[in-house]
Amino acid sequence: MTIDSIKNGIVLDHITSGKSMEIYRILELSKLDCSVAIIKNAVSRRGGRKDIIKIDSEIDINLDVLGYIDPGITVNIVRDGQICQKRQLELPERVSGVIKCKNPRCITSIEQELSHVFELSDRENGIYRCVYCETKAEHEI
Amino acid sequence: MKDLISITDLSVDELESLIKKAMDIIDNPDEYAEKCKRKKLATLFYEPSTRTRLSFEAAMLELGGSILGFSEANSSSASKGESVSDTAKTISCYADIIAMRHPKEGAPMVAAGAASIPVINAGDGGHNHPTQTLTDLLTIYRERGRLSNLKIGFCGDLKFGRTVHSLIEAMCRYEGNSFVLISPDELKIPGYLRAGVLDKNKIPYLETDNWDNMPELDILYMTRVQRERFFNEADYLRLKDVFILTADKLMSAKDELVIMHPLPRVNEIERAVDEDERACYFEQVRNGKYMRMALILMLLGIE
Ligand SMILES: [Zn+2]
Fold it and tell me: Among B104, B110, B127, B207, which one is least packed by beta carbons within 10 Å?
């Protein structure tokens, strides 16, 4: 299966198989005017299956959010048909406004304007904790 | 350091200098009588805690400073009106330092982010209560002359008692300490403390539901089983009377045992124990004031 290569834009490669739709939704790619291709279940050269998203425009992406959702992603920036920048994502130290603290005793439960901030407390196990109450983040967004 | 939100904000060196300062205040109270002249402490208590508030106020008054603030009658009002950030900014215009108690976890941290003056966490729900831990450390130090090589027993509610968790964490930073954790099965220490602190640092500890190890203890820290930590009244009633310290049980304990309790107590220490020389919980209250004096001086940058 082939999909037209993009000239100027972003390719999100090595997305965990099955996660592309979630990423499409969280990055709000449906709001873009440019073309967006989602390739699901592609064969990965690293072995196994992967998803790929190609975006035909060099949009701003919050890499911390993306790294939190799927740290295995490689972000390729394409200019004039060539990959000019390759970036391997990792779990960000801090994410803001992505995870919601679900602790009813947390200050964020009564002060709506506070942004929900989580910090990585255990990289090995990918555990994030609310900076206010230290409650562990549940892995769903 | 500008604020004290969690006991882990303090390094071992900073803890040591706070204890030294408190000891110096105890020995030379007159020298400190005017150290905070014309300085104001704001006590912002979004839930009532008379003991903690009085301790902070007594500390500031003894340093020659003055106090202002409020204490809300019930916690529901914390959800109405001005945000914690706005209050902290406003109070920064009137006072030199804030002590904040709030029913919601993390509120003092939010205040510290907004205030231009130091903020001390005077308790945020069941989360952090660093000045209680400072008080406990000073008490141990004064009674035993050291913070290392001690066998410390904790008894009662070890699951929800944040005071217990943060004292265990604090004592793990000193060499040679070990713990005996006496509680019913339902109120054992939480997993994060067992795995993340005790096991991880290879600290010796024993979890038990009896008093067999009393003769080995250097410190016995009693806690109250709090009604508000339970979802169901029946569980509370069943567990609150299980672990009560009596004069009888103390027969087998060391002469130099130090009995501590963060107060207020309900019935977990029999009144007769108060007469025992080893009972230090009222002395602990006095230490709380000295430690808060030392902390206020440190955060205000006054020698
Ligand atoms: Zn939280």
Answer: B207
Whole-angstrom distance, CA of residue A8 vs CA of residue B165: 55
Q: Which domains does chain B have, with CATH numbers?
A: 7-128+288-299 (3.40.50.1370), 130-285 (3.40.50.1370)
pLDDT mean over B261-271:
91
Does A3 fall in a domain? no
Number of domains in chain A: 2
Which of B85, B104, B126 is the closest to A109 by Cβ?
B104
CB A84 within 8 Å of CB A117: no
For the ranges A55-69, B27-41, B97-111, B220-234, which has the lowest average pLDDT? B220-234
pLDDT in tens, B55-107: 999 999 999 999 999 998 665 445 567 899 999 999 999 999 999 999 999 99
Q: Please indicate, yes or no, if residue A2 is contained in any of the structural domains.
A: no
- For residue A70, the distance in angstroms to the closest alpha carbon of chain B comes to 26
**Chain B residues with beta carbon closer than 8 angstroms to that of A117:** none
Cβ neighbors of B170 (< 8 A, separation 6 or more) are B7, B15, B133, B136, B137
Find the domain containing A134 and state its range. Answer: 94-138
Q: Is the ipTM of this complex over 0.90?
A: no
Which pTM was predicted?
0.88
Q: Of the residues B53, B127, B129, B142, which is catalytic? A: B129
Query: Chain B: nearest CA to A135, how far in angstroms?
Result: 10
- For residues B203 and B221, is the Cβ–Cβ distance under 8 A? no
